[in-house]
Specification:
- By secondary structure, the protein is mainly α.
- The protein has one domain: Chlorophyll a/b binding protein domain (Chlorophyll a-b binding protein, Orthogonal Bundle), CATH 1.10.3460.
- The chain is 46% helix and 0% strand.
- It is globular and about 50 Å long.
- Its main location: plastid.
- It is found in: Plastid, Chloroplast.
């Protein structure tokens, strides 16, 4: 049920039937692939929002390769990283994306028997062995990810459109 939505909602809310476009053409993804993308973007947004808040507070990881982390502006701080650091970031992302690519074609076609959307092989130890509790945790992750995507867009709007969010200190 967590794949569809809340336990008390039997079907996903889709008044325009956009999740059924895969039936029209193979060029359109199944809802399983869309859920995979939603979870991935939600996870990245959760990390981004926490990172922006931590960086804006002045907290930094100890140690640096002769890099000054005095710039706590989340937009300009990445440009202060040396090229070698960017190489490490891009290599790490590439390795993880390559590892996660396994089974994406199946999700595009709606085959979830080999791989559940959002299952990147890391989080099984965080889920309860009770199926109901595991579904609740999956739903919490989905909702927190949606909230984080909205929060990140709010922070970005406030930065690029000054005053867009009254009282927002992350600009």
């Amino acid at each position: 049920t967590a794949f569809l939505g809340a336990p008390d909602v039997p079907e996903p809310w889709d008044p325009l039937k956009l999740t059924e476009l895969y039936k029209v053409s193979g060029n359109n993804p199944d809802v399983a692939w869309l859920r995979e993308a939603e979870l991935k973007h939600g996870r990245m947004a959760m990390l981004a929002v926490v990172g922006i808040i931590v960086q804006s507070s002045g907290a930094h990881l100890p140690g640096s390769a002769e890099v000054s982390f005095g710039d706590s502006n989340w937009v300009t701080a990445p440009s202060s990283l040396p090229a070698a650091a960017w190489g490490q970031v891009i290599a790490a992302i590439g390795l993880e994306e390559g590892r996660n690519a396994k089974g994406l074609y199946d999700l595009w076609n709606g085959q979830t028997d080999k791989r559940e959307p959002g299952d990147n092989g890391w989080g099984k130890s965080f889920l309860s062995s009770d199926p109901v509790a595991a579904d609740k945790m999956r739903l919490k992750e989905l909702k927190n990810g949606r909230l984080a995507m909205i929060a990140f867009m709010g922070i970005a709007s406030n930065h690029f459109i000054p005053g867009a969010l009254p009282g927002c200190m992350y600009s």
